[in-house]
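Researcher: Can you fold this with iron/sulfur cluster in place?
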Amino acid sequence: MSSFKHIIIPVFLNNSGCPSGGRCVFCNQAASGGEPCRADSLETYLKKYISDIDKLNINNIEYTFEIAFYGGTFTALDFERQSEYFDAARAAVSETENAGHKKFTGFRAATRPDYIDSDILSFLKANEVKTIEIGVESFDGAVLDAAGRGYGSKTAFDAAVLIKSYGFKLSLHLMCGLIGQSRDIFKKDAETLVAIGPDYARIHPLCVIEGSKLGDMYKEKKFTPRPDTELIEETAYAMALFELNGIKVIRAGILENDNFRKEVLAGPAYANLREIAESYIHGAVYDYIREKFERGRKILISAGLEKTLNYLIGYKKINIKKNNDLFLEFKNKMLYNNERIYYILISAENNEPTYALTRPDVLKQYIIKF
Ligand code: SF4
């Protein structure tokens, strides 16, 4: 619980509602280590979760919270079962309502595009669902087929558009590295997502999970994953593209769960994947330096924030190692100029010329070269 401002309380359904016998080839929700949360134990689970938050929140700092149904296909459950979950959650929430420092803001439901229609959306609207998360994974028909998703690209596109038309907040999930999903296909997937314009996105580079169909194929040498570096580059590309288009990336990488990470047979299952991808993005700054400065001059690089400086240096100093032919000096301090903090300032040793880069400048530089 990193912040008391807004907290998402996850309720994991572990494949509940997923089409029977048709589990997607990359998926094994059971590997997360937990039992699916049943409706009859939800009230107890939530009361404990909320009470644990309050124990940490010793100063009663005001916060809002929502309850999210993840890890299955929530809207494929019949309305009666969905109602059991909503009712149990409301029973837990109603006990907290007298405590003025916290406010329940609604539900969030994760599902698949083929379990979205007008009836379902009307039902969700009537039950205080505010955000719908759709595991689209790709908009390419052949990639969806190979992943065993059981729907086509039009279904994915139409579902997203319909959700938006009902006024829900929309989160779309994309994967990279799926069977047959080349870099060009992934770039088109990312562009399609931008064209739809969801509020949020999650990017999941493929990790091969023990117990999944893909895990079996991998062990039988029928599937070879693409190198981690390629998938991190694609994750970085999508992060940059989405941010430039006002889409908030709420996750890059697999589920934040160490048990789950232990079940990964192959793929970039790094806990700090997002920071690694940021290193890749900031590697583009060195292309800019090469374009702007003569070789052999000492280049001074400053950043307004320490984390930006860390991205510039790179995960395990990757950017320094890649550019060890440049004569670089880093300044680790906040920079003020007419009260403005620069994202990155680059100059030669005699301070002429000096270039100021904004974060969008850096994101664009990475995308252009991709
Ligand atoms: S990826 Fe989503 S829809 Fe497919 S089996 Fe896993 S939880 Fe169900």
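Model: Folded with iron/sulfur cluster in place. The longest helix spans residues 39-56.
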